[in-house]
């Protein structure tokens, strides 16, 4: 229960995914896990760094990450998906419904009476084809089909197998669940397929830098609550007492009560049983905005605490450095700034400007380590080498705790 409570009192993770590993030595050896940092996790599985599941520490190395299911809004959701993907025979998402169970029991009883072999329930997949079939079924299930998740393929032959199965199966994945082609996958112009590739696992962005400009805008806009008003209900807004969402578009300053905007988005959808919005048109700028992005910003703004202040200080130092730096021009055309773009904007390499130390009035009482964000999410596998060690004193740096499940499909 403590883990569930902690998960709901922390910001939505910057990144959390489930992944499918395949042995480069023996392609039939597969492994399913979950992590907030796939590049680091892959290095652990391959023995490059300490950690990793025991069952991947064998002669099947090196492992490659061929599929990533990303976009989970909590660690718990990712772990639920991982468990269902690993154990389809025990998962209610892939198992039989109560009516199906009744019909199944009747069928088993009837066939047993006639001396026929009993019908067996779905068993855990061992092959790549079986894992992809179960993945497809999970994405069509009642619970997971409503989540804003995406499937990223890094291997062309794995994506080809996915396409073959997708064309054969009767069920269809919801349109908001996108397929991203990456790694060795060639471009595909099919509906529902994106080509927003990063190249490799190591280039996946796993921190909050993509929403830093959005965070800064929201904090600045909500700093003076006297004149704030909900765009929908026209009532005054108090960010300290109410949950308030801010439009992620850079030039839109529309704010709304969380419940007001949620009701508007749900009313505009054709899915009557949908409880959580996927996206909708902002009542201010009328552009389509993603609900998951606004919830990530809201959760970090209200639960980020010292980490939020630290990230804003780093952003402010970077902005001061950019303002003090000489303007670069090319053929008389100025390079557009982040202020003219829509969020989220990646500012990964521009957090600290060239004149970072020029403003003596800015003092950082919180050191923002490169891996500080990982204290907000934990992985699913147990680290090799025994139980986790406890410390009687608080360390000077954030200790990364890795909790992985030792489940394997080799």
UniProtKB/TrEMBL annotation:
Domain of life: Eukaryota
Cofactor(s), names only, from the UniProt record: a divalent metal cation
Cellular component, GO, one term: Slx1-Slx4 complex
Pfam families: GIY-YIG, SLX1_C
Database matches in PANTHER family: STRUCTURE-SPECIFIC ENDONUCLEASE SUBUNIT SLX1
Alphabetized UniProt keyword annotations: DNA damage, DNA recombination, DNA repair, Endonuclease, Hydrolase, Metal-binding, Nuclease, Nucleus, Zinc, Zinc-finger
Biased composition (Acidic residues): 353-363
Assigned protein family: Belongs to the SLX1 family.
Gene Ontology terms describing biological process: double-strand break repair via homologous recombination
Description of how the protein assembles with itself and partners: Forms a heterodimer with SLX4.
Taxon lineage: Eukaryota, Fungi, Dikarya, Ascomycota, Pezizomycotina
Domain GIY-YIG: residue ranges: 14-95
GO molecular function: 5'-flap endonuclease activity; crossover junction DNA endonuclease activity; zinc ion binding
Leader sequence residues: none
Provenance organism: Aspergillus coremiiformis
Protein name, as recorded: Structure-specific endonuclease subunit slx1
Major site of localization recorded for this protein: nucleus
Cellular localization per UniProt: Nucleus
Function statement: Catalytic subunit of the SLX1-SLX4 structure-specific endonuclease that resolves DNA secondary structures generated during DNA repair and recombination. Has endonuclease activity towards branched DNA substrates, introducing single-strand cuts in duplex DNA close to junctions with ss-DNA.
UniProt-annotated stretches for the region Disordered: 36-57, 321-363
